[in-house]
Amino acid sequence: MRFTEEQEQLREVARDFAENEMRPRIREFVENEGFMPRDLYKRLGELGFCGIMVPEEYGGAGKGMTELIIITEELSKVAPTMGLALMCVAPSMVPMSELPAFRENFLPGILSGDVVFDGAVTDPSGHTNIPEWPIMATTVEGGYLLNGTKQFVTCAAGVNLQEVYALDENRDMKRFLVQGDAEGFNHNAHEIKFGMKGSGGGTCTYQDVFVPKDWTIPTEVGGGVGYNWIWLQCATIGLGAMEGLFEKTADLLKSRTVNGVPLSQVQAVYESLALQYAKLQTCRSLVYDACEAYAVDDLDDAFMKSQVAKIVLPGVALEVTKECLKLFGGRGYADVETYHYLADAVSTAIMDLTTEYVEEELASTIGLRKAE
Amino acid sequence: MILTDEQQLLREAAHEFAEQELRSRDADIMETGKLPGELFSRAAEIGLTGLCIPEEFGGTGMGAVESAIVLEEVAKVTPGFAQVLQQSLVSSLLLLKTPELAAELLPRVADGSLQMALAIEEPTAMPGQREYRPLFSHDGDDYVLDGERANVVNVDADLLVVYGIDAQGASLIAAVDAGAAGVSARADANPLGLAGNRGGTVTLRQVRVPATRVAAVDAKDVLNDYAACLATAIQAVGCTEGFFAKTMEFCTNRTHAGEKLTEQTAVRTRIADLQSKIVLCRTMAFSCARLQDEYAATDDPAIFEEWALVAESTKACVGELLFDVQYECMKLNGGMSYHEPIYWRFMADGVGYCIDGGTREHHLAAIAELIGLSSE
Description:
The complex is a heterodimer.
Chain A: H1 5-22, H2 27-30, H3 38-46, H4 65-78, H5 80-89, H6 93-96, H7 100-105, H8 107-111, E1 117-120, E2 137-140, E3 143-153, E4 161-167, E5 173-179, E6 185-186, E7 202-212, E8 216-217, H9 228-255, E9 257-258, E10 261-262, H10 267-295, H11 299-334, H12 336-347, H13 355-365
Parallel strand pairs in A: 1-4
Antiparallel strand pairs in A: 2-3, 3-7, 4-5, 5-8, 6-7, 9-10
Chain B: H1 5-32, H2 38-45, H3 64-77, H4 79-95, H5 99-110, E1 116-119, E2 136-139, E3 142-152, E4 159-165, E5 171-177, E6 183-187, E7 200-210, E8 214-216, H6 219-223, H7 226-253, E9 255-256, E10 259-260, H8 265-298, H9 301-333, H10 335-339, H11 341-355, H12 360-370
Parallel strand pairs in B: 1-4
Antiparallel strand pairs in B: 2-3, 3-7, 4-5, 5-8, 6-7, 9-10
Helix pairs in contact in B: 1-3, 3-4, 3-7, 4-7, 7-8, 7-9, 7-11, 8-9, 9-11, 9-12
């Protein structure tokens, strides 16, 4: 893909932020079981990243998927967690900004980075196991009461505004907006996750949490693109993770010698690393190919490629990060600034539905699977 | 695999140890990275630390199959502790090559009063490489050790079996008291996995060691350590079996839209595929163990040759094949596996088995040499 000058400038801005502001404080991400430093999250807003795809008339930058993916890639090269935090907010603000009440009450704070936004979907019985989901919302005077539990909520520990997917008494799915300090809402998650440290992800519980009627969002809002935007972004986080560790490994090759020979002259080593580079470039081409399809509104092609990316990239990201980590040997295994890329990459195969689920979706997209 | 009655009893004892002594402490070990002091002596009480030590030195004089059985059972629950046990098993074998040190030290390993750890690697170089600096210098009847050893498992050990070379390049091992002047050890602060293995770095600053505690070794015994290949591989198997058991539990209890997850053909096939890979790796590891025992009994060079090839191949293949299995287990358990340490720890540990004792590539190079593709 050839980027416009403006896109290249945006990449510079994202890279400068990641290298100059995030990198020196990387331990505040990778050793943090809670939520990342708020001042760094706020920078996502100040730099215009949270509203990158929101129309200009609503205070956003009015850009498209390509721009969001460029930012996600650059942030994830340093801390995939930051790519993840952006994934929780940037795509959903596009449909949400079309709702006047949301726009007035919540959008400015989210776009400025003062309000951390995320979505809570997974019921303990399973993310897509909706037939077994309990009824979580009951109608009361002026709104609803929420009762129940959501698991694996990405920014739980830091959230200020959450969109909760829940069934009402008629088993209709609705989205409910809950503020971080709402009474009965417990999101103080400190779960010890494999990777993606600093995302503050974990379990949320709701005990008689009152949601005014105006703070519900019909499910059809944002329904068109469904998960496809998220899947492409998720794949991009994996891409950033492999690029980040690849760059560190390339530096290692320059500085180490074996039997007096620089590692960069050892055939088995440089060939293996070239192979990892080939894999990550193939993935990168796919990701930006999907972006191009979004840019010209060829949604069939864009969705197909987003799904392919979500299926293929996590596995490749894991392979590439593993091969790189092996070159660091035991030191890499003991160094969180090195190994976090591998642990982070694994999440991309699991979050927002596992590879196997997306395979089912792709089978439908390309007509291999008969609709039931 | 058919076990003798004695081996079967040993498996039951190791299994019981893992379930009763490790299972309840495992969460704590993962959280703190520390091992409760009594664990090692508990293991010694039922003979796990003296497994490979001959009866004349207070051990039970068993072989590779038996130590594989024990390491597998322990690794199913706490892979990091299996690594600590391995240190005693493998360093016992190394010490057996120097009878004086063996007679002095091995009885104390067998009774659990002494923990040993091997210290071999330099922070930035592997043995045999030119960057590997001399550690030993001669001073009268004593030796003076000066340098650093990285990736040492069990830095809390009482006794360090330190490998190094002198200025002439001769290979030596020294039995160094952890409390001796000039010795300091620190555990890695935040490693990816293998919690409780107490991995870290040992620094030796002008450490004086009497010649009686130093012995010449064949570098090959340290560098191409086929016993260590097996020990690492079988732990990878045990660790993956531990994950597989948790995955089975999850998939057989979980329902989707009112139907058991295992009703889905794709899920059943995937689980079966994982099982087949575990069986393959386990079978490979135990044939390796049998060859090791056969060689120990016969001293037959033809058996040695086969053992060497099987051991290197096992180490080269098992870690990464099982890493794929661990990844599939992560996906089958979904978000649970990423958020709950009792699931993801098996993958974090599994990565360690792809690195510890040399990566796949390191062992492929050894295989190339074994089959006559020498680079010289």
